User: Fold Muscle LIM protein 1 isoform X4 from Agrilus planipennis.
Amino acid sequence: MPFKPVENPKCPKCGKSVYAAEERVAGGLKWHKMCFKCGLCGKLLDSTNCSEHEGELFCKICHARKFGPKGYGFGGGAGALSMDTGSHLEGSSS
Assistant:
């Protein structure tokens, strides 16, 4: 029976083998510590500020900026909310 070396997972960023001592896990994939950084701003990530999207890593801020909701007035807060039901618009026949 020939010797068969253990297959280590490959880092999605650099394609090299990832060993247990240097691995970071996100999105079911194993990354090198130095490859575990935001795809936009380059900030090093950890488990608390990491978001994975289609095999690429982002910090929470860049992920929200790139994939979050967009448009005028979104996230206006409580000051933009209204309790008006529109009743003053019904039944007016002039």
The CA atoms of residues 53 and 63 lie 8 Å apart. Helices lie at 60-67.
